[in-house]
Amino acid sequence: MNKFSHIDLRVNQLESVLPFYEKLLPELGFTRTFHSENWKVFAAEGELPSAAYFAITEDQEHKPNANLIGFWADDQAEVDLIAKVVKESGGIINDGPRLFPISPTYYAVYFEDPCGNKYEIVHRLN
Q1: Is the confidence at residue 126, as pLDDT, over 70?
Q2: Distance between CA atoms of residues 69 and 9, nearest Å
Q3: Whole-angstrom Cα distance, residue 109 to residue 97?
């Protein structure tokens, strides 16, 4: 059983980052929305409350840091696609997409949302 449940993410300006997440999260499998006034929730397939979800809320005092959230990709083409979506949606590519010396098959892209939260998407063959 995958123990992942959800992410509650803070951003300092919800209005400015929401278009980024509206493009990125469906590409990562969070295709259903359950929005309220204060929370924007993107859920994966499955029955709630057990379906994985990604929730975003505004905290004007939020300061991005060195934490990083990583996602698996099915193949290198998916890593490349996410990099393209990030660029087109106002995110920042920090490195990649490329092979990294972590292992001979570690193909990833590291990026940030428009307010500086850090992510990685990786395809890794065993």
Answers
A1: no
A2: 10
A3: 4
The first and second tokens of residue 73, run together, are 């990709």
121 within 8 A of 109, measured Cβ to Cβ: yes
> Model pTM greater than 0.70?
yes
Dihedral sign of CA atoms 25, 22, 47, 34 in order: positive
Provide the edge-to-edge strand list for the sheet that holds 106-112: 68-72, 118-124, 106-112, 92-100
Q: Which two tokens stand for residue 114?
A: 């428009």
Alpha helices (H) in the chain, listed in sequence order: 14-27, 76-88
Question: What Rg value do the Cα atoms of the chain yield, rounded?
Answer: 15
Structure confidence by residue, pLDDT tens digits, 17-75:
999 999 999 999 999 999 999 999 999 998 877 899 999 999 999 999 999 999 999 99
Give mean pLDDT, residues 92-107: 95
Q: What angle do CA 38, 44, 50 make, to 5 degrees?
A: 85
The answer to whether 115 and 12 have CB atoms below 8 angstroms apart is yes
Q: For tokens 């995958």, name the residue.
A: 2
